[in-house]
Amino acid sequence: LGVPVAPPVRDSEGGTVAVVGGHCYALHPWIDGSHRTGAQLTPAASRHLGSLLGAVHTCLAGVMESATDRTDRLAYEGAYDSAAPADTFALIDELLALARGRTPRDGFDSLAEHRLRERRALLELHAHHRPPPAAEAATGWVHGDFHPLNLLYRGTDPVAIVDWDRLSVQPRAEEAVRAAAIFFVQPSGELDLVKVRAYARAYRLVSGADTAELASAVHRVWWERLNDFWILRWRYQLDDRRADPQFPAVSALAVWWTRRYEEVCEAFAG
Fold first, then answer.
1. What range defines the domain where residue 80 resides?
2. Which of 30, 36, 133, 232 is deepest in the core (most CB within 10 A)?
3. The pTM is what?
């Protein structure tokens, strides 16, 4: 269908999956390529990226149609809800205590404490903007983890989308917004709205998503980011610091997005 993937190698009987010890395995060919961040993409390349994700969603809808059970979809719909402020406030208190108790403290701990207090104040101000559950019509099959490290380029051309283990039925436009928030976030925590606009218009054109769907997705992903502290949970609850370098930009983005909410929404849905 023209979507760049790495098809699994077939065995002598034509199969592509080996079941060993109750686990499934597949062998894929090596794909030469490199990763490109949003900073390396021109507006034209950003449009190409939006078209690519739109094609992924459109093609998945056709390929997976026979595997989509309406009962499963409705069960998913009922389970999908936005973060509750009360739960987030409790998490903030827990993470604040862990950050303050860290010895020896460093600059990261000070920034974490500042961002946690800042986020609590923003949530107190915007708690009434909690979005309702996603509408069924907005869901579809998505890649599930579309970001720069799962897309390989050869020169300026995408040659393989990898890491499909999160393939699932989700609100599809939210994947488009999440991907843009990763590709086009700058070190300062701002989004490159020129590239976002080019990307989003191309995505809408290919996927058929309308502006209302994108606007709703922007709101839900904004709320998700406002309530999400996965990097701090890794650091303080799991003692895993692999994601620490992402924290300055990611934490600043939530604040910037809140202050520039209308501009971000217009870039995606205008």
1. 32-269
2. 232
3. 0.90
Residue 54 lies in a domain: yes
Contact 39, 148 (CB under 8 A): no
Half-sphere exposure of residue 62, counting CA atoms within 13 Å on the CB side? 8
Position 18 in a domain = no
> For residues 175 and 67, what is the distance between their CA atoms, to the nearest angstrom?
20
Q: Is residue 141 part of a domain?
A: yes
In a domain, 7, yes or no: no
CATH number for the domain spanning 231: value is 3.90.1200.10
Residue by residue, pLDDT tens for the chain (270 residues) are: 999 999 999 999 999 999 999 999 999 999 999 999 999 999 999 999 999 999 999 999 999 876 655 545 544 444 568 899 999 999 999 999 999 999 999 999 999 999 999 999 999 999 999 998 766 557 899 999 999 999 999 999 999 999 999 999 999 999 999 999 999 999 999 999 999 999 999 999 999 999 999 999 999 999 999 999 999 999 999 999 999 999 999 999 999 999 999 999 999 998
